[in-house]
Amino acid sequence: MRNRIVTPLTAAAGTLALGLSLAACGGSSSADSGKPSTEVTVYSADGLHSDAGDGFYDKVFKDFTAKTGIKVNYVEGGSGEVVQRLVREKSNTQADVVVTLPPFIQQADAKNLIATYKPAGSDQVAAADKDAAGHWTSIVNNYLCFIYNTKALPQPPKTWDDLLDARFKNKLQYSTPGVAGDGTAVVVKAMHDLGGQGPAMDYFKKLQANNVGPSASTGQLAPKVDKGELLVANGDVQMNYADQSSMPHQGIFFPAASATSKPTTFALPYAAGLVKNGPHEDAGRKLLDFLLSKEVQQEVSSVGGGFAARSDVEATDPNAVKLKQIMSGVDVFTPDWKDVDTNLTSYVDAWKSATGS
């Protein structure tokens, strides 16, 4: 997801000018004044917005504004960065809704940054994809994946050991664990596939011979793979599938533990929560309700290239069919997110030690 400077982007009716507009959002909330809010600010991990203006967020925020008159201010950053930003602003909260990946949504919850709110429709979200207390819920389901350049590699690597091949020297990169949600997910998957923290860290030490180096943003890797600057990188299914229309030379794969093992992955959903003490909490609730509405959830695959969070939405559009094919034959496991959240610092420290990062 990605420890870079958070860049304000245009979303639907509004552009958030970093600093000036954020400062203007501070102070008393609309709830305090008794007037309904006319704007809402979203801090989100990347992947659902498109610079071309045709992404999931682009359409949904535009539709939300048309329906409610509420302008959406959108600020994008890495999965960990958006949480860090909430921490820094806790005494003068600027955001109303946060969207990030596990384990960072759990981290935000543990830091008491998220208010209790169960959006309309959240009863149709699987228990594993939401917080039982109502602090967050998935709005778009997604899965960890890897990508490869299809021009240079007729077939993707099959196993983790394949990635150690010398042909990938300086042609392989994965986003930084502890900063990027997808990068953290690489560590979680390796620990699952390779038999625990010790074997996984031994592996990352070997893989470092091929690794280009740290990348704060997973989203920055896809263009490099498409151009052939990289042969392999990490990613997530929704983001990389959605990218394929403009980056046709990237393919999706899931490395297996061994040649006799099935490929594996796990759910890495975009999870949303109402920011505690946000200046426009009423508008934040309305936006969360809208994001989980059946109307919007039906567009998760057709517009966003992702998987609907609601179990009562069965998408049959061409994207949904292709996404089902991508996931065919892949074992999906469920990480112990409580353990990951509790031990994230030690896992990242072990990774840093193993790789010299």
Provide mean pLDDT, rounded. 90
| Order of helical and strand elements | EEHHEHEHEHEEEHHHEHEEEHHHEHEH
Global Rg: 20 Å
Shape: globular
What's the main sheet like? Answer: 8 strands, mixed
Based on secondary structure, the structural category is: alpha/beta
Seen as an oligomer or otherwise, the chain set is single chain
Unreliable spans are 1-28
Distance, first to last CA: 18 Å
Helix fraction?
25-40%
- DSSP summary, beta strand count: 14
Q: Which characteristics define this entry?
A:
eight-stranded mixed sheet; 357 residues; single chain; disordered N terminus; four-stranded mixed sheet; alpha/beta
Structure description:
The chain is an alpha/beta fold and 357 residues long. Helix content is 36%, strand content 17%. The strands form 3 sheets. The chain has an 8-stranded mixed sheet. Strands 8-9-7-10 form a 4-stranded mixed sheet. Helix 3 (56-68) links the parallel strand 3 (39-45) and strand 4 (71-77). The longest helix has 19 residues, at 337-355.
In short:
The protein has helices spanning 20-25, 30-33, 56-68, 79-88, 104-110, 181-194, 197-207, 221-227, 237-243, 281-291, 294-297, 299-302, 318-327, 337-355, and strands at 7-11, 14-15, 39-45, 71-77, 97-100, 137-141, 144-149, 172-173, 232-236, 250-253, 264-266, 270-274, 307-308, 331-333.
